[in-house]
Amino acid sequence: MTPGLTSHRPSLRVERELQRAGHRLVGGMDEVGRGALAGPVSVGVVVIDEECRSAPVGVKDSKLLSHQVRERLVPRIQRWATAYAVGHASPSEIDRYGIMVALRFAGTRALAALPVIPDLILLDGNYDWLTDPGRVGLFGLLEGPAADPVAPWVPVRTMIKADLFCSSVAAASVLAKVERDAMMVALAAEVPGYAWELNKGYSAPEHFAALESHGPTVHHRRSWRLPGVRGTAEVGRLRVAGIGFPENAVMHDGSVRTEPGGEQCEAVNERGSR
Predict the structure, then answer these.
(1) Which of 188, 70, 169, 51 is nearest to 110 (CA)?
(2) What backbone torsions phi and psi does residue 190 show, to the nearest 5 degrees?
(3) What is the pTM of this model?
């Protein structure tokens, strides 16, 4: 991480600039779980209006906070925000459609769960994985494998390190991280042996050892080259109408690099990961 950024305190400066430009409801959005080996990829969104004051003290990128602090911040963020939601995409969707389309599923589901329609989404990173290029300007849901509720198309502004500089994006990352972690702890009780209550589905020695001994579960991303699993089967990914991403897209969010087709090239353990 760039020196000095870990101590940077997010603010609403960018959000206020966007509001002065006419975007009254600004939704900060961020994802967690992109680099995990098991479990969903999750996307949080936090909407603020002009009446929202500074974010609760302590809100920053979820990677920089302990799990205890993140959990204490959740009710404060929920009281502070105009609206908030978290959406998820399953491992089977990641396997079938690729990680970038799965991110779009999760982000669209988060938008659909909001009680308001943001005027603009402020998205962490330098690539707009939320906008479906086949449906720009049209209202209606990205056609996924399930009957999802309708979510409108919302314009997107990307910003590198938005989770470090923008309070709404940092808050979204906290909500998504806490909700996804809770899901993984619950799954650990159902599927013991992989220590998901500790590693939350990310790379970790005990996770590798379990994969070597027991193989992948239905909660693993089987299309990825899972550590300790020889001959992991490649699951065919579908390219459906209106769903896609650039074949030459190469992303890096500090924890995982995604190559063409959404294939994972590196993963990190749960500490400091998304």
Answers:
(1) 169
(2) -80, -35
(3) 0.80
